[in-house]
Structure formats: C-alpha cells, structure tokens
Amino acid sequence: MFDTHTHMDTRPFEDFELMGVAGVTDVLTLAHDPMRMSTADVLVDHFYKLIYGEVRRGAENGVSVHVGLGVHPRSINDQVDTTLAALPDYLEHPAVVAIGEIGLERCTDVEERVFRRQLGIDYYPKVIHTPRREKREALERIIAIVDEVGAKDVVIDHIDPSTVDIALEAGAYVGLTVQPGKASVRDAVELIIEYAEAKFVVNSDLSAQRSDCLSVARVMHALTIEGYADRAYKACVQNGRDLFLR
Ligand SMILES: [Zn+2]
Hints:
This protein is α/β, with parallel strands linked by helices and about 250 residues long. Helix content is about 45%, strand content about 15%. The chain has a single domain, classed as Alpha-Beta Barrel (TIM Barrel). It is globular and about 50 Å long. The mean pLDDT is about 95. The site of zinc ion has 6 residues, from loops. The site of zinc ion (ZN) has 6 residues, from loops.
C-alpha cells in the first residue's frame, strides 16, 4: 500500500513499524508547518529533515519514504521568496517526488501568489491542500487557479462526500484523507465504490492532530471484504505509484 499524504516528522518510530507490519510499503511525507516558521531557514531546515531524517526512519522499518517539498499556506512568512529560491536545489534530491503540500488556507493574495509560483514548477506532481473552513469556496478558487496555470498531475486532497462533486469535475486525482474530522473509512469505501472511473488516492494525513497510521490499510481491508479488491488496489496502491513513482 501507498499512503500518499503524511507528515511522518510528527510521528513516533512505532508508526513506521505498524505501517510496515500492515503492508504499507510506500509513504509520501509532505512539507507543512510543524513549528513557527519565523525565518526562511526554519523551513529549509524542515526540508532537510524530511529528506535525511524521515527517509532513514522509514528504511529501518522496510517502508520507502518519498518526500514532497513546498511552502504550505500556513508556512508563509515575510521571507517566503528566499525559501522559494532555495526550493529547486532540494527538489533535485532523489527522494523528492512531489511539490507539496501547497494550496490555500485563507485565500489571501500572498497565499495565491505562492501557490501559483509552486504550481508553475514543471515536472513534479503537486499535492494540494484544501482547508476545512469554507471548503467549497476555497476548492473552487483552487481549481480555477490550477486551470489558469495549466498544472498537470495534481492531487486535490482532503476531499470528502460534501466536496467530491467539485473535485471529480476538475478531472484531477482525488485525495481521500481518512482522519477524524475529515473522511471516515466508511466515507472512503462508499466513494470508491460509487465512482468507478475516479482516480482516488487514499491517505491518512498523519500529523500532530489525532490521526491513524492504519487508515489506508483499513480502507484496503474493508473494500476487499466487500468484494472490491480491484478498486482497493487502485486507490490504495496503484494510483499513487503511477503518479509519484514514474
Ligand atoms: Zn497535510
């Protein structure tokens, strides 16, 4: 299985161990806002930790950790242009397979500028955060910007039954985050059964918030029991590999 959205730097060693035991072979760990991002250096050091720290902790448990780097909307500070200038050098590391997570939180002008700039970076797939508050409005704005920039290979993430219609219309990969406060295992199972043609990727968004390192394994298991092993494989394994490990 492939958990396509995590923040492993917030999690204990034991989570890697449990995921490995459950059959999670690949994890994408994304840049976020684990501390106050007071200067450009703090965020660049965070990139460094993901590439050199989390990849090693995964390997010690038989889990391949892949990295997504970028400026999360909550990480924007007044030195953001310095961070954006440093980003391309870090993207060249072989563990890095994506830009993320990026997106909008409060839909401010600076958030939009930083989001557009990162969407414009060629070659890498992008993992796009959508906020909890005023989600439909933010989602519509995000999709409009993705279209304007012409960005390909994007995951619109944190989609649930209340927003799946907008995300599917965009034709992007649809991220189902199974976490308290976002989608439940049951929500994910029902969406995957209902929309046969959609390109879903299931993830846990493991973070310092309440989260479940077995989210992807639970969705895979439930779908398999219900007779949808093929759909389970696509959403929990293959789609993530096709997008991130080309
Ligand atoms: Zn996240």
